[in-house]
Design a protein that fits this description.
The complex is a heterodimer of chains A (about 850) and B (about 240).
Chain A: H1 12-32, H2 36-66, E1 75-79, H3 85-93, E2 97-110, E3 116-124, E4 135-137, E5 144-146, E6 155-159, H4 160-165, E7 173-176, E8 179-189, E9 203-207, H5 211-214, E10 224-230, H6 233-241, E11 249-252, H7 253-256, H8 258-306, H9 311-352, H10 363-386, H11 406-422, H12 427-460, H13 464-475, H14 477-510, E12 519-524, H15 529-538, E13 546-557, E14 560-561, H16 570-577, E15 580-584, E16 592-597, E17 609-613, H17 614-620, E18 627-632, E19 635-647, E20 658-660, E21 672-677, H18 684-693, E22 698-701, H19 703-740, H20 743-755, H21 760-798, H22 806-833, H23 836-842
Parallel strand pairs in A: 3-9, 6-8, 15-20, 17-19
Antiparallel strand pairs in A: 1-10, 1-11, 2-3, 2-7, 2-10, 4-5, 4-8, 6-9, 7-8, 12-21, 12-22, 13-14, 13-15, 13-18, 13-21, 16-19, 17-20, 18-19
Helix pairs in contact in A: 1-9, 2-8, 2-9, 2-10, 2-19, 8-10, 8-12, 8-14, 8-19, 9-10, 9-19, 10-11, 11-12, 12-13, 12-14, 12-21, 13-14, 13-21, 14-19, 14-21, 19-22, 20-23, 21-22
Chain B: E1 18-30, E2 36-48, E3 52-56, H1 63-70, E4 78-83, E5 86-87, H2 93-100, E6 104-107, H3 119-129, H4 135-145, H5 161-174, E7 179-183, H6 191-208, E8 211-215, H7 219-223, E9 227-232, E10 235-237
Parallel strand pairs in B: 3-8, 3-9, 6-7, 7-8
Antiparallel strand pairs in B: 1-2, 1-4, 4-5, 9-10
Helix pairs in contact in B: 3-4, 3-5, 4-5, 5-6
Classes of the chains: A alpha+beta (about 850), B alpha/beta (about 240).
């Protein structure tokens, strides 16, 4: 017979023995079903994180790609030199489609006529635009049709402004450099033709094959070369990493269009909240079931120690067992989550009105890391606590270790920090949600504790069922507090999603009313301001907000001369390198939020003050009191930063990075004015009249961009509906786990009570009384916490208004009470039916 | 080799003469409010290898406390305890666990079987912990020996109290311990079942030459041991 080897040494052999034990114990525990609940919680956690993570990532990509229509491409590369052929080949090698456009200013003249006009000439290759479609018409603001490609060789298409400016007729011939091109259509809509903030000149679109013949491209000519890119996100990401020719920059829809970027960011944050809520729920589920598992483990640990196992061995074996279980259950969860997100995508795609791109692999390792973190942070501490159970427990079960190791707190805190870091893109938001949830959990624990104390006198005055139910809460003091806290966190996550899904999204949608400005008028000359006001008054517009604009160049910062070379950041260099638009005003609209300093009033006219938008603050690292010296057409003005503000660019109203009080820049004179207004569908005659009366004024149609932002909101609403349904499922699993945690004990108690003569009805009422009380408490605190969090998120993260909703408080309390009672009843029905003899025999 | 079990038979002459030694053992517990309650008060005990000793006493006299101290599950407030010649008071918890591994077996009043393990797996556990490579066959042999060869894959909740205690006895002998501690082994069983269990316990004990220390308040059971000691007022009396 074999003799025993030296067991459980603190060596590699010790680890091997622990691994053997862990594997055997897992296999056996799995067969007996005792690990099922913990494995289920881990798998649900992984599945929820993976499915919601992948799905939201796909929605994010779809929305971002959809917004490519407003850019005319998925991304563009911009530069002042023609792109070398090998750069383009490398881009194509990544699987990207490309279309090159050269654009430059040039004077265009009507052949056999007198009129000339400075225009932007755009010479495009076949394939242009890569995203969206050009729409043409036969006359300004007339019926439109989709274009079939680009102008054929020898032809040109022009926009309404050039058409009006040159008083063209169909078939007119234009002199462009050394070539003559025939005008065959008017451009009604062109994807990527700037947003609310681009500068516009009349445009002529021609075939790039005609470009050389014009003789307009040569040394010294001011040509902007644009390479449109179209393709999959992975290829676009690779293109971003590719070495670009000197001076070239790569822009996505987000970089090029602040109003879309603003909407995309907000949409992304809504999805982040959904993911965070799911993580919160999953963490609650894992933590709860691990605690239950830990309770069961104590007897086993005491026995193992009694049989000669050292603490080191027990710790190693339990840790390995948990990690192996976590990896196994996590892998199953990842597969289920992958399938889940496919189902979500399949159902959601028609409602989102877009095909969802294939899921990327990036969220997968992130989800696995999350599952592992959750395991180590939330499941390991209670399990390790079990490892401290003393061997003498085999005789005296009450002699519990009573060890609540600080390690648990530290690990859970580390896990939370790591979870936040994993969501680094939204660190602030994650901090709010997790901080809010922790605060809510602390409040819940305190309130549950107070409730437990308050219940003692209460239950003496109640009927037998309530006495039993409330007695249960009071007796299992610690467990009851833990249960109420976990239920509260689960309800908080669900209520938060409800608030986000309904109230916050509605507020966001409300910011873009149906009559939001959809037309910008630019290039209004100072002398046209009054006639324009009269024109609009005559067309039924009572009020028209006109903004003056002056062109300025930054020459000194805090008294020190600066030029583009003074800054390292390429974005800042680009901004400083050219003249930028400034404006002046007595007041700011509600789309401006004060970040620091004070607003000014009409009384402050003439003060040398400056209001800087967040963009300028970040670019120039500005703070209050800094001075900027600006050159306005030869006049130098020094201004002090009086306040900083943040503009909500998706308000679709004119806004400026730098603004002064009136009376400062007026002397140097406004070069032009701009305004925005709402043009109802079918009112295009007004535009025609406008262009006829003010031929130099350009109307920029923002309907497409506005529609894009609205569509982002709508898609968000639908996407959140799906995520919500899925998260609700995860929430129910948490509640089941909470109730499951006390099932065995309840079975014994119930059997005992029935043996003592209690009727099933009394016992059932007692259980329901207990769960109703717990649910009411958890629901009320969760509702208050959800409201507070929603308010914080609305004010600090989303910049949208949100007022308290007293009804939600009531709804939270009632829903918490109802859901917890229902789940409790469903889960414990079986316990009530078990014959007492069977339960007592097994104990 | 024992022909029936295939296990090595050990006799008193094979091992150190002294299996358990206790001298001046005191155990006090804090009852709260700073009051100390003495459970054991300068107790001494010497058990030779292969001996069977019964410790009897009234409920609350400290029998289980004494057993947990002798097995090294707990430490005395004062005094010295030696197990198989090694001083327990000088060892930390892990050291005491290592000393128990493969040397000490237990039979508890409440069986202490792990509910998630089958009968076979429960019996394999101590042999596995002691590092025996043949834990499976070994456990199977002992389970057959206690008459449960047909119930190997049954879980504790599928067995009667008597069967569960037989599994516990099989577990106690699976790792061939030098010393077996039994705490009221028949306390949860009816008279007939209890009597069968005791027959089995003494039979295995005899065939293996194990030292047996048994705590009980059943005088009939105690009389089957070689020596009966009474625990009274924190001390043992012959």
């Amino acid at each position: 017979m074999n003799s025993p080897q030296m067991p459980l040494r603190e060596t590699r052999a010790g680890w091997a023995a622990a691994l053997r034990h862990a594997l055997a114990r897992l296999r056996r525990g799995w067969r007996s079903g005792e690990l099922l609940v913990l494995a289920l919680a881990l798998a649900v956690a992984a599945a929820a994180v993976v499915s919601v993570g992948l799905f939201s990532d796909r929605v994010r990509q779809a929305i971002e790609r959809g917004s490519g229509d407003t850019l005319g491409a998925d991304a563009i590369v911009e530069g002042h030199e023609a792109f070398p052929a090998d750069y383009r080949e490398r881009l194509q090698g990544l699987g990207l489609r490309t279309a090159a456009v050269a654009q430059f200013p040039s004077v265009v003249a009507v052949v056999d006529g007198q009129q000339t006009q400075l225009a932007t000439i755009k010479a495009a290759e076949p394939g242009y635009p890569l995203r969206g479609a050009l729409r043409l018409s036969g006359e300004p603001y007339g019926p439109t049709r989709a274009a079939n490609g680009i102008p054929p060789v020898g032809e040109a298409w022009v926009d309404a402004r050039l058409w009006s400016g040159l008083a063209l007729q169909p078939g007119a011939h234009l002199q462009v450099g050394g070539s003559v091109l025939r005008v065959t259509a008017l451009i009604a809509d062109e994807p990527g033709r700037g947003g609310a903030f681009a500068e516009f000149a009349p445009e002529l679109l021609m075939n790039r094959a005609d470009l050389a013949a014009t003789g307009l491209i040569g040394p010294g000519s001011r040509v902007q070369h644009i390479l449109q890119l179209g393709g999959e996100p992975a290829a676009l990401a690779a293109a971003r990493r590719l070495q670009r020719p000197v001076g070239a920059r790569l822009l996505g829809a987000r970089d090029a269009r602040p109003e879309i970027s603003s909407a995309l960011d907000r949409a992304g944050r809504f999805l982040d909240i959904a993911v965070l809520a799911t993580i919160l729920l999953s963490a609650a589920a894992v933590s709860l079931t691990a605690r239950l598992h830990s309770q069961r483990l104590r007897d086993e640990v005491a026995l193992l120690k009694c049989l000669g196992a050292g603490r080191g061995f027990v710790v190693r074996a339990l840790t390995l067992q948990l990690v192996l279980l976590g990896l196994g259950a996590g892998a199953v969860g990842v597969v289920v989550g992958g399938l889940g997100q496919a189902v979500l995508g399949w159902f959601a795609a028609p409602l989102l009105n877009t095909a969802l791109p294939a899921p990327g692999w990036l969220p997968l390792p992130q989800a696995l890391a999350l599952s592992l973190l959750m395991l180590l942070g939330f499941a390991l501490p209670p399990v390790l606590e079990a490892a401290a159970a003393p061997p003498v427990r085999v005789f005296q079960r009450a002699l519990d270790a009573g060890v609540h190791s600080q390690l648990g707190l530290v690990l859970a805190a580390l896990a939370v920090v790591a979870l936040v870091l994993l969501q680094a893109g939204a660190a602030r938001l994650a901090l709010f949600v997790i901080g809010g949830a922790s605060a809510a959990a602390a409040v819940l624990a305190l309130m549950a504790w107070l409730l437990v104390l308050a219940l003692s006198p209460l239950r003496r005055r109640s009927g037998v069922a309530w006495r039993f139910g409330l007695g249960n809460i009071a007796r299992r003091r610690g467990a009851a507090v833990a249960q109420a806290t976990a239920l509260g966190v689960a309800l908080l996550a669900l209520l938060l999603l409800t608030v986000v899904r309904t109230d916050l999204l509605a507020s966001w949608r409300g910011r873009l009313p149906p009559d939001a400005p959809n037309q910008f008028l630019i290039n209004i000359q100072p002398e046209q301001v009054q006639p324009l006001r009269e024109f609009f008054a005559a067309h039924g517009y009572a009020h028209l907000d006109l903004w003056p604009m002056a062109r300025a160049r930054l020459v000194a910062l805090n008294g020190k001369p600066v030029s583009a070379d003074s800054f390292d950041d390429p974005e800042t260099r680009r901004w400083i390198n050219r003249e930028f638009n400034m404006s002046w005003t007595t007041g700011f609209g509600d789309d401006n939020k004060l970040l620091s300093g004070n607003w000014w009033s009409a009384a402050d006219a003439g003060q040398p003050w400056l209001s800087a938008e967040e963009y300028a603050v970040e670019r120039l690292k500005l703070k209050l009191g800094d001075t900027l010296t600006l050159d306005l057409a030869g006049t130098r003005v020094t201004l002090t930063v009086h306040n900083t503000r943040k503009v909500r660019w998706d308000s679709f109203r004119p806004n400026f990075f730098l603004v002064t009080p009136p009376g400062m820049l007026d002397s140097s004179g406004a070069t032009q004015w701009i305004t925005s207004f709402y043009l109802a569908p079918g009112q295009h005659a007004l535009l025609r009249d406008l262009v006829r009366q003010f031929p130099n004024v350009t109307a920029v149609d923002l309907d497409a961009a506005l529609g894009e932002v609205r569509s982002i909101v709508d898609r968000m609403v639908h996407a959140l509906e799906f995520i919500f349904a899925f998260t609700l499922g995860a929430g129910l699993v948490v509640m089941l786990a909470v109730i499951e945690a006390s099932r065995a004990q309840r079975a014994r108690e119930t059997a005992l009570l029935r043996t003592l003569g209690a009727s099933s009805r009394v016992i059932l009422q007692g259980l329901l009384a207990e769960y109703a009380t717990l649910g009411l408490l958890a629901g009320s605190v969760a509702a208050v916490a959800a409201q507070t969090l929603a308010w914080l998120l609305a004010a600090r993260v989303f910049d949208i208004p949100y007022g308290p909703r007293p009804l939600l408080w009531l709804a939270g309390a009632v829903a918490g009470c109802a859901v917890v009672t229902l789940v409790g009843w469903l889960s414990l029905r079986g316990v009530l039916r078990t014959p007492p003899r069977q339960v007592l025999a097994g104990s | 080799m024992d022909a029936d079990t295939g296990l090595t038979v050990r006799t008193a002459t094979d091992t150190a003469a002294e299996a358990v030694f206790a001298e001046g053992v005191v155990k006090q517990i804090n009852t709260g409010g700073g009051d100390l309650l003495s459970i054991l008060d300068g107790l001494s005990l010497r058990v030779l290898a292969g001996e069977s000793v019964a410790i009897v006493g009234a409920s609350g006299s400290g029998k289980t406390t004494l057993l947990s101290l002798l097995a090294g599950l707990d430490l005395p407030t004062a005094g010295e305890i030696r197990l198989d010649g090694r001083s327990l008071t000088e060892l930390d918890e892990d050291g005491r666990a290592r000393l128990r591994a493969g040397r000490v077996g237990f039979v508890f009043q409440s069986f202490q079987l792990l509910s998630g393990l089958t009968a076979l797996e429960n019996v394999m556990l101590p042999a596995e912990l002691a590092g025996y490579a043949d834990a499976g066959p070994r456990a199977r042999t002992v389970l057959e020996r206690v008459g449960l060869g047909q119930r190997l894959d049954h879980y504790p909740h599928q067995m009667s109290g008597g069967e569960q205690q037989r599994v516990a006895i099989a577990r106690a002998f699976a790792a061939e311990p030098h010393i077996l501690f039994a705490d009221e082994p028949t306390g949860n069983l009816d008279l007939v079942t209890g009597s069968h269990i005791i027959d089995l316990l003494f039979e295995l004990n005899r065939s293996r030459g194990t030292t047996l220390i048994l705590v009980t308040h059943d005088t009939a059971l105690a009389r089957r041991c070689g020596r009966v000691l009474t625990l009274n007022q924190g001390r043992l009396h012959e």
